[in-house]
Amino acid sequence: MKVGIFFIICFNAIFIGGNSQNSTRSTTQDNSTGGTPAGGAATPAGSGTGTFNVKDFGTKGDGTSDDSKAIQAAWQAACNSTGSPKVVIPTGTYLTGPVQFFGPCKGVTTITVQLEGTLKASTNLEQYENHDWIQFSWVNGLILTGGGTFDGQGAVAWPYNKCPANKKCNVLPTSLKFNAMNGTIVSGITSLNSKFFHYGLIDCQNFNASGLHITAPEDSPNTDGMHIERSSGVTIADSTIGTGDDCISIGHSNSHVTITGINCGPGHGISVGSLGKYQNEGDVNGLIVRNCTMTGTQNGVRIKTWENSPGASAATNMTFEDIVMNNVGNPIIIDQTYCPFASCEGNAPSQVKLQDISFKNIRGTSSTPVAVTLECSQGIPCQNVILEDINLQHSAGATATCQNVQAKYLGTVVPPPCKV
Ligand SMILES: *[C@@H]1O[C@H](CO)[C@@H](O)[C@H](O)[C@H]1NC(C)=O
Ligand SMILES: *[C@@H]1O[C@H](CO)[C@@H](O)[C@H](O)[C@H]1NC(C)=O
Ligand SMILES: *[C@@H]1O[C@H](CO)[C@@H](O)[C@H](O)[C@H]1NC(C)=O
Ligand SMILES: *[C@@H]1O[C@H](CO)[C@@H](O)[C@H](O)[C@H]1NC(C)=O
Ligand SMILES: *[C@@H]1O[C@H](CO)[C@@H](O)[C@H](O)[C@H]1NC(C)=O
Ligand SMILES: *[C@@H]1O[C@H](CO)[C@@H](O)[C@H](O)[C@H]1NC(C)=O
Ligand SMILES: *[C@@H]1O[C@H](CO)[C@@H](O)[C@H](O)[C@H]1NC(C)=O
């Protein structure tokens, strides 16, 4: 039950500790010409709508030759052009190691990566070192689409993932990492069997994803569907996510995140947190989770903060509404006593302030008797928590448990409110 927590630790270690370059990058690129692919299909200089087919840059597309360099060359040429270029990866299977889709692409207004085929991640872990698999960084106006598949081929790597048991683990590569992007659209893309997370967002603004399919087995370690950190203006809509960990996790320093139309399961549910592990974490503000269905997940909607948090922060203005729970372990859970390690130094209460949180129209079945858990911090009780129109059933009678919170109840609330 607590296993899912460790991945956040590992994740934070790599993102915050290991990634010093983020929102800025110098460039030597010039925006004055279109691409001139090797082997013909040259794009006229300044054409503005250039198509950069990876085949023209030498991909084999046979599933066994390493196509990383050719794909990256197609991107470079497109990024170096003007207008709204498109990198096309046609039907076929392309084996690659890490591929870096880096900007800035100074002359372009939008740049499309149209994946029609399947990209397969190399299973040779030595190729990745500190890299994720597919990395998009410092690009404005990226559109990733095409109906294709990113296959992380994670099964070979999962046995090497020690994060569920060891704080100082080596983190495996995330399949799709978005770093310091602005104005991104991802639609109609499948991600299979990531080695670690499927999608990771950090320092992104204005990011819209829809029509995603994200799949990994229920017992695969740390295969979160999407983790979002230090980002704002993020919408994830109309997607199907089944993994071995959180379907979506919202880390610290996020604002204006909307999650809607998600079918989640198997997995650990949709989670805020874990928050409060580090000093100087930014607040979470303005989260909407709406019109989602959870099936057979370990949790439904969850907010999780650390005990012994080194600094104060807040998570406020969060709404969870119109959610169906089918046989879910902890359909509604706030847990501010989170501490996964046997040896936590002391038991200082969490310093993450939770305020203005509403759970509305949440119905269905719980697979455990305690359908609602509101365990707030002894140091900073939760403020303004509202439960409205809740109907969660369990065969032996559902119950609720609360600490350090005086929730407000509106409409019909089953299980009945906690006695505080
Ligand atoms: C990375 O972002 C942080 C916080 O946004 C900022 O303080 C830091 O200077 C940035 N680092 C680089 C290399 O841009
Ligand atoms: C690149 O783009 C800028 C801004 O759109 C423009 O002023 C400039 O003429 C373009 N070409 C070069 C070579 O910088
Ligand atoms: C980018 O454009 C410049 C100027 O035309 C050219 O010298 C350079 O080779 C191009 N780089 C790539 C990767 O296409
Ligand atoms: C992102 O793009 C928007 C719209 O173009 C712009 O207003 C904003 O300043 C950009 N943010 C960053 C960090 O560049
Ligand atoms: C994302 O969706 C919002 C709301 O529909 C819209 O305002 C915004 O412009 C979209 N962003 C992009 C990059 O398409
Ligand atoms: C709810 O989400 C489903 C996808 O799971 C979508 O088809 C439907 O249109 C959404 N309904 C509303 C009211 O947004
Ligand atoms: C609360 O969050 C919503 C959704 O992101 C946002 O529209 C609204 O402005 C926020 N309200 C406050 C008071 O921050």
Automatic annotation (TrEMBL):
Secreted as UniProt keyword: yes
Positions of the UniProt region annotated as Disordered: 22-59
Compositional bias segments (type: Low complexity): 32-46
Bias (Polar residues) ranges: 22-31
GO biological process: carbohydrate metabolic process; cell wall organization
Subcellular localization, as worded in the UniProt entry: Secreted, Cell wall
Molecular functions (GO terms): polygalacturonase activity
Family: Belongs to the glycosyl hydrolase 28 family.
Protein's name according to its UniProt entry: Uncharacterized protein
